[in-house]
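Cross-posting from the chemistry board since nobody answered there.

I work mostly on the small-molecule side, so proteins are not my area. We synthesized pyridoxal-5'-phosphate and want a rough idea of how it might sit in this target. Sequence and SMILES are below. Is it possible to get a predicted 3D structure of the two together?
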Amino acid sequence: MSILRCINCGAQYDISRKYFRCDRCGDLLEVTHKIENYRPAQMKGVWKYKDLIHPDLEEKFIVTRGEGDTFLYEHELISEFTGIKEIRLKHEGENPTGSFKDRGMTVAVSHGKFIGARHTICASTGNTSASASSYSSLAGMKSSVLIPKGKISRVKLIQSMAYGAEIVEVQGDFDKAMENLESLVKQNQYLYTLNSLNPWRLEGQKTIFYEIMDRLKEIDFILVPAGNLGNTSALGKAIADYYELGIISKKPKIAAIQAEGASPFYKMWHNKRDRIEPVAAETVASAIRIGNPVNWKKAIWAINYTEGIVETVSDSEILEAKKIIDKSGIGSEPASAASVAGAKKLREKGIIDKYDRVAAVLTGHVLKDIDNIAGNGPIIDFNTFLDKIKAEF
Ligand SMILES: *Cc1c(COP(=O)(O)O)cnc(C)c1O
C-alpha cells in the first residue's frame, strides 16, 4: 500500500529500500500511501495512527517505548507572555528519551527491523542520537552516532553512551557530521540512516499534528522550532492527510521558527530564493544549530501548502521565552522555546491575532540542555530562609 517516491523526478522505489536518496537525481524520497477507509488502530500513541504512517508493517516488527500521547498545556503566563489567549503547548519532551525524535524513531527503527537493517547510523545535534541509540538497542541493532565534537549538550551525549551507541566525534559542526554521514551511507548502503533524511521518521512525526487535532478540532496556527526541517515537513504532510481525509476542513498555517544565527530557511523564504544557501550556524539553542538543513525542499512545500510563514528569533528572545516556560512549571530546552518566542513575535507583528487558536510544539525536555538555564529564582541558605519565613508573619 506504500511506496517511496522521489520529490524531484517522481522515480518510485519499493519500501524495502535502505538508502534514502534517489538513484536518478539524488533528491529526497518521500513515503506515499494509498489510504482507503482510514480507521485509528487499537494501539496507543504513535501507532494508533498506523494506517496513516506504515499500513504495510506487520505488528511483530513494531519497536516501541510507548511514545506519543504527550500533554497539551494551557497556562496564563504563556498567554500573557505571547499576547495570545488560546495558545497551547504540545510537550514533546514527554516522550521516552525526552524529545519528539522518538515519534519518528519508533517508525524508522520498526521499518528497519522489517527490512532487515542490522546497523543504524545518524548525525546529530544530540536528541536524534539519544533516541536512535535507545531504539536501536531495543531492537537489537548496533548503532553509531556522529556528533560534532564539543557542540552537543553533555546530557544528550551521556544518554547515547548509556544506551550503548558507538560515539564518533566529528571535527566541525553538525553540518559537517551530516556531510560525512551522507557520503558514508552512499558508499555503504547496508548502514541504515536514522536522520530525518529517512522518510519513515517524518511519517512518525506526523502524529504530533494528528494528536493536536483530535483534541482541538480546529486551529489557526501551528508553530514549530526549525532546524533540519524534518518537523516542518512532517507537519505539512500531516495537514494534507487530515485535510484530504476530511477530518479537518481548515488548514492551519505552519509557522517555522529559526534561531537568528541559524536561519538559512528563513533567508530563502524571505528573499523568495528557489534554493537554500548554507550558512555557518551559531545559536544557544544547540538542537537547531544547523546551517544546511536537509529537508528544505519538503519544508518549503509545507509552508506554501498551508500559506504559512518562516520567522527568526534572537538568542535573547529564545532565553526570555524559556524562562517563562520554565517558570510556568512546564519547562523545556532552549530550542523548544523558539516556538513560544516566535508566537510572541508574530503576535506583535500582527500576523497572529489575539484570539487566534494557536498550538506551539515544545520539542525537548527541560533537562536536555542545562547549560543555558537562567533559573527563575536564587538559591538561598537556611538562615536567610528562616528570616524570610519570620518576615512573612
Ligand atoms: C531535532 C530538534 C529540533 C529540530 O527539528 P527539525 O525537525 O530538525 O527541524 C528542534 N528542537 C529539538 C529539541 C530537537 O531535538
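Reply from a structural biologist on the board:
Welcome over. Reading the output above for you: The radius of gyration is 20 Å. Residues 99, 101, 127, 196, 225-232, 287-288, 333, 335-336, 363-364 surround pyridoxal-5'-phosphate (CB under 6 Å). Happy to explain the C-alpha cell format if needed.
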